[in-house]
């Protein structure tokens, strides 16, 4: 990775943005909720919001439905300080994604509506309008690879970012309901990984990429070409493979309200750490701390910590196996 470019702390996230509806009060089941709390959602939007909250500059590259829900999401991006210059509204029957989620750690309910998803309409023309040279890194969430024309647009974005000297970060973000098959997902994600400087995913996602084989072995193999590969293991922490090293990152023990949002917060903390000049180990620890904070709060984007909150957490908490 071009570390000098990362120090710009200026990021472009490519992928879905959506509306999240959280069952209220916290702890209520979705089917028993008395009300719902609306918030910005979608992995790419959550990562961008997390970066902005941590002091980085973040922009989003996506498409939203030209309706009230799409406009709500667009307005939310502005509230979090995420630049929307590269967000395009699309008409027809395409719809912005909707997630209805319970804020509870046990038996967490999450219902996703993505029929005719608007973000899959991202096109080559959208990508060709981007001046990649102004960004330190491009973050692509893997859901964008699940259908055309978004898949082709995402691959083009990676090629153009690399040509402009920006780092390419791949968040595998595997959602089986978006793909026609696990085999298709494995083939396409491995192809995109070959264009990536940093690859981040959990053990289940790497297992899918390995087509049911040894996901950790695949992560190690991918690190031979990428600068670093982060293999997340849930409550067991994360293992990063970089330049022949294996870096263990334990989790921070907290009392979680819910499990959702941890992965997006981890990415935001990791990338802003690298932008600050921290090494991979310290940056991954920063990501783990951000994830720990988010699971104790309602929502994903609304739960994202500020830089001051993250620094305070790091100074007062120790990871579980330190």
Describe this structure in words.
By secondary structure, the protein is an alpha/beta fold. The chain is built from eleven helices and 13 strands. The strands form two sheets. It has a nine-stranded mixed β-sheet with strand order 5-4-1-8-9-10-11-12-13, with helices on both faces. A hairpin with an 8-residue loop joins strand 6 and strand 7. Helix 2 crosses helix 9, helix 7 packs across helix 8 and helix 9 runs antiparallel to helix 10. It is globular and about 50 Å long. The two termini are 28 Å apart. The model has no long low-confidence stretch (mean pLDDT 96).
Give the topology, please.
Elements (H helix, E strand, L loop, with lengths): L2 H4 L3 E5 L3 E7 L10 E7 L1 H11 L3 E9 L2 H12 L3 E8 L6 E5 L8 E4 L10 H5 L8 E5 L8 H14 L3 E5 L10 H12 L4 E5 H7 L5 H8 L5 E5 L5 E5 L2 E5 L12 H14 L4 H15 L12 H10 L6
Parallel strand pairs: 1-4, 1-8, 2-6, 4-5, 8-9, 9-10, 10-11
Antiparallel strand pairs: 2-3, 6-7, 11-12, 12-13
Helix pairs in contact: 2-9, 7-8, 9-10
